[in-house]
Amino acid sequence: MENTGKYALVTGATSGIGLELAKLFVKDGYNLVITARDLTELHETASLLQKPGIEIVIIPKDLFDREQAFSLYAEIKQRDIEIDVLVNNAGQGVYGKFDQTDIDRELQIIDLNIGSLVILTKCFLTDMVARNSGKILNLASIASKVPGPWQAVYHGTKAFVLSFTEGIREELRETGVTVTALLPGVTDTDFFNKADMQDSKAVQDESSKADPADVASDGYKALMAGDDKVISGLKNKLQMAMSAVTPDSISAKQMNEQQKPVDKDDL
């Protein structure tokens, strides 16, 4: 395998869409910097990804803590690694009615989904603009396009990610740097377990969950093409087309029906 000499940084790289994206970078000869909270999982992931001639750098960081996002950038700079592609994949949600969920957990999710993403984008984008080259992929979601009863904070954070990505993309139009948003739908990852969301109607049908490898492939192609955004999956594209002409109040009601617990139809 020919090494391109380029480095991609993937956050939340030990499972799901992040892992599948990491595999695609390795396949194309990129060196990798992977980060997640669990050092053991990072070592296991590095072993899984390792190919002859490819460097896999592991840096454990807890991006629920904004300061660790700054320290991740500092450590990469200290190692004299130039990041050619940044993938802000790490993200999490929490399930339940907002008046009943844990505010501390939700604030941590905001720090992860928004705070650390903005910090890493700011730090690495500054370097990319200075050399007039680089690519960034931000994980948004189809949740970014519709109100989200039972996941109000998560939907809100993803709406921020999409708007933020589209805003800075326009600022960068005259540069050699591109920023792309990936909008997956329900995907077969550990997201729903972490969000305590297994009782939701939206995740009961296993056959409706997208393969994370397919989602990653859609995102990777869009990233490399320099596209502004990509909605992964035909069903999700159709859903987003419908939501674009549906009043938000109706979309919220529809989403409530999709996401409420299966045993609470009377709520």
From TrEMBL:
SUPFAM superfamilies: NAD(P)-binding Rossmann-fold domains (SSF51735). InterPro entries: NAD(P)-bd_dom_sf (IPR036291), SDR_fam (IPR002347). Residues 247-267 are annotated as: Disordered. The keyword Cell inner membrane does not apply. GO terms for molecular function: oxidoreductase activity. Keywords: Oxidoreductase. Belongs to the short-chain dehydrogenases/reductases (SDR) family. It is an enzyme of class 1 (oxidoreductase). This is Oxidoreductase. Residues 247-259 have a biased composition (Polar residues). It comes from Dyadobacter linearis. Signal peptide: none annotated. Its EC number is 1.-.-.-. The lineage of its organism: Bacteria, Pseudomonadati, Bacteroidota, Cytophagia, Cytophagales.
